[in-house]
């Protein structure tokens, strides 16, 4: 074998090994991204049955809301801005739905039951839409519900004392169907017009 041919073979092998090495390195160190071009299948595992106490001291079971859509927000009454905005947007969306709002049950579930007692929620509820059902209970009753809806909540590390603390928490509004199944969620800051329009799509009779 001529030296020229040998050098060519060596060069070819070296180049091949180098290219394979580069490809392997890039594949190993580049994050993989998937383009989803089909609708997701299955039902989101969000929600489930719950039994809590409303602002009138009445025991409420989620089964009693079957046949209506539930619009649920988790928060606490001492929240300075986020929760009031979410509840106001929900209330205004209900007004925009006009008579269709009778198909919707707006529900507020506290993440801070030690302060959000029945009596306190009774007062707090007067600030929002009259259809609101505000629910509380013991911490052992609230915790499983937070888990069902994948709600994060914890006392803020910036709180200065044990009484006037703030809560870090999830801020989504959940829309559940007439069987209590998850349909869609919205940011708490969703404009009432957009929220009402999104809900209206589910209220239309199926063709």
Give short descriptive properties of this protein:
single chain; 207 residues; alpha+beta; Glutaredoxin; 2 domains; seven-stranded mixed β-sheet; two-stranded antiparallel ribbon; 5 helices; 9 strands; 20% strand; globular
Structure description:
The structure is a single chain. The protein has five helices and nine strands; from the N terminus they run αβββαβαβαββββα. The strands form two sheets. The chain has a seven-stranded mixed sheet with strand order 2-1-5-4-3-8-9. Strands 6-7 form a two-stranded antiparallel sheet. Helix 2 crosses helix 5 (192-203). The chain starts with a helix and ends with a helix. The protein is an alpha+beta fold.
Report the sheet-strand fraction: 15-25%
Amino-to-carboxy terminus distance: 79 Å
Tell me the helix content. Answer: 25-40%
- Alpha-beta content class: alpha+beta
Q: Mind telling me the CATH class of the largest domain?
A: Alpha Beta
- Just name the CATH architecture of the largest domain: 3-Layer(aba) Sandwich
Structural shape: globular
The CATH topology of the largest domain is given as Glutaredoxin
**What's the rounded overall pLDDT mean?**
83
Q: Which blocks of ≥5 consecutive residues have pLDDT under 50?
A: 17-42
Strand order of the largest sheet: 2-1-5-4-3-8-9
Number of beta strands: 9
Count the DSSP helices.
5
Question: How is the biggest beta sheet arranged?
Answer: 7 strands, mixed
Question: Nearest-angstrom radius of gyration?
Answer: 27 Å
CATH H-level superfamily title of the largest domain: Glutaredoxin
**What number of domains?**
2
Q: Element order, helices and strands?
A: HEEEHEHEHEEEEH
């Amino acid at each position: 074998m001529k030296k020229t041919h040998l050098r060519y073979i060596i060069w070819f092998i070296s180049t091949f090994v180098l290219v394979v090495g580069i490809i392997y390195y890039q594949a190993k160190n580049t994050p993989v991204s998937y383009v989803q071009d089909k609708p997701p299948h299955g039902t989101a595992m969000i929600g489930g049955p719950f039994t809590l106490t409303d602002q009138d001291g009445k025991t409420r079971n989620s089964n009693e809301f079957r046949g209506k859509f539930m619009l649920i927000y988790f928060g606490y009454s001492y929240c300075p801005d986020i929760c009031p905005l979410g509840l106001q947007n929900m209330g205004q969306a209900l007004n925009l739905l006009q008579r269709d709002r009778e198909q919707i049950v707006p529900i507020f579930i506290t993440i801070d039951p030690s302060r959000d007692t029945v009596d306190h929620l009774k007062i707090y509820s007067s600030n929002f839409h009259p259809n609101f059902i505000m629910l509380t209970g013991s911490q052992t009753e609230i915790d499983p519900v937070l888990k069902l809806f994948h709600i994060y909540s914890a006392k803020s590390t910036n709180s200065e004392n044990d009484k006037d603390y703030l809560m870090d928490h999830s801020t989504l509004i959940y829309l559940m169907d007439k069987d209590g199944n998850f349909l869609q969620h919205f940011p708490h800051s969703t404009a009432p017009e957009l929220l009402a329009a999104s809900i209206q799509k589910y209220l239309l009779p199926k063709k």
